[in-house]
Amino acid sequence: MEKVNENEKEYRKGNKSGPKYLMRGPKLEWGIIRLEPGEAMGAHGHNEVEEVFYFFEGEPKILVNDKEHRVKQGDVFRLEAKEKHDIVNDTSAPVRYIFIKCPFLPEDKITY
């Protein structure tokens, strides 16, 4: 068993934004990402990893293979390996969403 508490973890950019990893391996990786207004996750993909996003705060846009989709709170997107994706907070409020990546392959990233 493994237990963590979100409040004991920090976002990559301090308590402001970026990813906050809650569990990393051995079979999956997951956490929360917070984007301030005007921030983007950064376009990328994965060779083998499938990724799921659950949006629980804010309404950003997600680009999948360069096609734009407007997100609503409660939306879930599952992306196959090799699907290029980016999340852009083009709103005036912060955005928070959960990401789940499986399998756990930390180096499996395609950058564009």
Automatic annotation (TrEMBL):
This is Cupin domain-containing protein. It comes from Candidatus Desantisbacteria bacterium CG_4_10_14_0_8_um_filter_48_22. PANTHER family: LIGAND BINDING DOMAIN PROTEIN, PUTATIVE (AFU_ORTHOLOGUE AFUA_6G14370)-RELATED (PTHR43346), QUERCETIN 2,3-DIOXYGENASE-RELATED (PTHR43346:SF1). Residues 32-100 form the Cupin type-2 domain. It comes from the Bacteria. InterPro entries: Cupin_2, Flavonoid_dioxygenase-like, RmlC-like_jellyroll, RmlC_Cupin_sf. Residues 1-13 have a biased composition (Basic and acidic residues). It holds the Pfam family Cupin_2. Residues 1-20 are annotated as: Disordered. SUPFAM superfamilies: RmlC-like cupins.
